[in-house]
Every structure is written in C-alpha cells, then in structure tokens.
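Limitations

Structures in this collection are predictions, not experimental determinations, and the ligand pose is part of the prediction. Treat each record accordingly. The example that follows, with XIL as the small molecule, is included so readers can see exactly what is and is not provided: the inputs are given verbatim, and the output is the predicted complex.
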Amino acid sequence: MRWLTAKGTQRENHTPQAQQLALEKIENPGSAGRGDDIPSAGTKMIYAKNWGQKVLSRREFIAKGTGTAVTVAAAASTGLLAGCANSAASPPPTVRSFHDLAGPRSLRAHARRHGLIYGSAVVIPVVQRNADFASLLSEQCGILVPSNELKWVALRPSRDAFNFGPPDFLYDFTQRNQMLMRGHTLCWHESVPAWIRKIDNKDEIKQIFVDHITTVCKHYAGKLHSWDVVNEAIDPNGKLPGGLRKSFWYENLGPDYIDLAFHTARAADANVKLTYNDYGVEVDNDGDAEKRRLILEMVKGMKSRGVPIDAVGIQSHLNAGLKYGRGVADYIEAFHQLGLEVFLTELDVNDDETVSSDLAERDAIIARTYTDFLTAALPNPAVKIVLTWDLSDRFTWLNGIGSHRKKQPDRSQRPLPFDTDFKPKDCFYALRDSFDRRKRA
Ligand code: XIL
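Predicted complex:
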C-alpha cells in the first residue's frame, strides 16, 4: 500500500496484515479500527492507556507526537496509544503515520466518499516554490483554483497580452496529481485593468469583453471543471434595478453583460460548468436574506431566458460567532429545485471579532463555525464541491484585508485547515467530520 506523505515521498507499509488493514480502511472506512481514527466529530479527548494515566487533548497529543518520534513509536509499539489498531502486527508507526492525514484519511478522500470534491484556492508562485506545500495540496485536494492569476488584472497586463504562463503551470500541476481545476473569474468589478478603463468607447469595451471571454475559455476548453463566469454582480445597497452592482461592466455594457458573459463562455467551451459566484449570502440575518433573494431572482431570470448557467457559487467567507443555518440551507434548496449545482467556493473563517487570543479557544470557535455552516449546507445533494480559500494559514488573504489590520493588527488569522507549519487544526477535523456526516452519494 502506498500513499503520499506531507513531504511528497512515498512510503510503503510492508506486512501483509498492514496491507490488508489499509485496504479495509479504504473499502470500509466506517468500520471499527479504521485508519482515520484520530478522534473527531466532537470527540474532545484522545486517551492514552498508560501515558502516566494522562488523558491528552488533541492539541497536546499532536504537540507530543510531532515533537518526539521516539516517545510515540515506543508508546505505540507497546500498545499504549489507543487508535493504533493492530499495533502488534504492524511495524511501529512513525509519528507521521500515527496521525496520518494522507491517502484515505485526507480531506480529498473523505469528501469523495460522500459525493463531494474538496479543494483549495492557491497562490501559484507558492505552489511553484514550496515543495512541501505542493505535496500537501496533492495529498488533500481534488480540485484547485488560482486565487488571482485568472483575473483580468493578472491575465491581461495589456490589451495585447494574455499571461497564461502561471495558470497553465497550475493546470499541469493538477494533471500530474489527478486533480481538477476551476477558473476564477471571467468578470469581476474588482479586477479591471487600468488600460481598459481608459477606453471611452462602449462598443469597443464590449468587443474586448467578448474577445477576452472567448480567448480565455477556448484556451482551457475541455480542461476545466467550472468557471466563475461572473463574480459579485449583486449589491443590495446600490439603487440599481434587480440589485445589480454599479460596476465598470454594468456602466459600459448595461445590465445584459451577465447574460452576454455566460453565452460567450458557453460558445467557447461546450461542457465546462458555468457558475455565478457571490458572497454575503451565508448568514441568518436580514441583510444576507435580501442578497439571497436578489441573486435567486437574477438566476431565475437567467434560467427563464435560456442563459446557460449550471451552478451557483456561495463564497462562504464566514465570520466566527455569526449564525449559519436555515437561510443558507433554503437558498441551496432553491437552486436545487432549479436543477442547478451549488459550489462552496471560498470557505474560510475570519475571527477578528473573537475577543480571546487563546489559540485553543480561537481554533475551537473557528471549527464550530465550520461545523455550523457545513451542517446546514452539505446535506443538500446539489452541493458538489467545497473549496477553502487556500489550505494553510500561512497564505491566507485575510491577513492582508483592511479590516484585519484595523481590528487585530497584532495577531494572525487562523481561518484554514492547516496552520502556518502545515499542521492540521481543529477546523481540519471539523471539515472532515462534516463530509462524513453527509449521506453517501
Ligand atoms: C482575493 C485574493 O485572495 C487576494 O489575494 C487578492 O488580493 C484579492 O482577492 N472574493 C473573491 C476572490 O471572489 O477573488 C477574492 O480573492 C476574495 C474575495
């Protein structure tokens, strides 16, 4: 049995018993003694039968485990640690294999067993430069999306240039690692290059818009899982009909630019899933309810006009402490009724409002937020993919946003499944357990 470690090396589990056990873990992951037995789903403690009679929290356990290979290996080989099935038959596990998160225990595998694809946004230069992180991605993710490199500003440094190098690199990386890739985004009010803003002829801008979508979609035709065709077109605080945002595209192309973008994308790529993606729809409060209503109306209108839309993206930038439940569940069901798929496209949890700076407390609250949201969202079979907006806290965009610098300049955000050293956090387990609670596909 082979699987990838975090370092990207392949490790073999030699004994026939161990191989049999590993196979059982894959084929029957729900069985007792399965591999993915680090306590989860609300299990707070890890029990050590004879480690000075001490009961370890997950945090203590991981800290010990990663600190001293010898201690853990010795404890495991004498059967001291619960969760180490067949310790007599198997070779003494290394630290890494003891709480292994790879192979059948990865987010990728758990998602897949429940009809989901799990993945992450990435900053492409990080994937190119950091081999450990690239391995972690290939271990954990079934799909990747570039955070920035397919947006206009990055892709179109000038009217005549398309900078396909970085996203093409990422596409090759996904192919080498049996992953999917999605595209983000063909149209977003926050990524409009300066050179196009200088053009004051609306017909010319429209032509550039159509040419851009055509060229980019053709470049990747048949290769991507989905495209965020239009991102964040609704602004309930504006005064425009239908709640449309007063964006550069709206002002130059008029309200039809959304339909035009979807038709153009479909003409260039017959099969990629065309998605409308937005934020501010996740919380159970009046503001988010109004935005949900506006987006639903817009999408119903598109469907009735025969606009080729396949899916709706819910960005899922959550805030620790807010209420997630019925609102997002009903929203997803409304799209299910329309025959659309739903993607959770940019999941993370901002905890700048959490007063405590105790890491364990913060992580527990963040994990709870993941669980609450996913408990509402995942039961619906329309939900097909879940992506976090990066995989490690080291690269989160949330440390760079203005509100963070104002509210919590002295502490870093912890919004993602892996910490800055690529160690799993509570929300890793919250995600994995949430996948496991979903009815099997
Ligand atoms: C963010 C990127 O992560 C940042 O690196 C960049 O500076 C700004 O954009 N919603 C979206 C994403 O749809 O495109 C945004 O990505 C995060 C919010």
